[in-house]
Known about the structure:
This protein is mainly α. The protein has helices at 15-26, 34-59, 63-73, 78-85, 89-103, 108-117, and strands at residues 7-8, 31-32. It is 64% helix and 3% strand.
Amino acid sequence: MVGGAHGLLLKTRASATLLTAVKKVHAGEVWFDRTLTSRVLSDNNRRAKSELQERDKINNLTAREREIAKLIAEGLVNKSIAGRLFITEKTVRNHLTVIYSKLGLATRLELAIYASKNGLGSDTKNNQ
């Protein structure tokens, strides 16, 4: 059962298919249109693959790079990050260049959004 429904059918199906589906559901069975089921499974597989790829990208970041991404997500500027981590601003910039490359990003804003969206902006560990 999905969201209270015992059956799902595309509206473009023939009336004979609709009748069969209604009879099956009335008899206590569950009916899901094959095309719709296939679409849902494909979408889920694509989403899972994408999430796995993003997780792999994040896992390729060093602990220091994850730390810098977290501080970017918190809104810190390079000077503040450098002071907090006891490194130079040039080192922060170098780390950012590597982070952008590893994650396929181009700007600080993209990194801040990416970090927040993917859990890099929180206090949770990202060593999954």
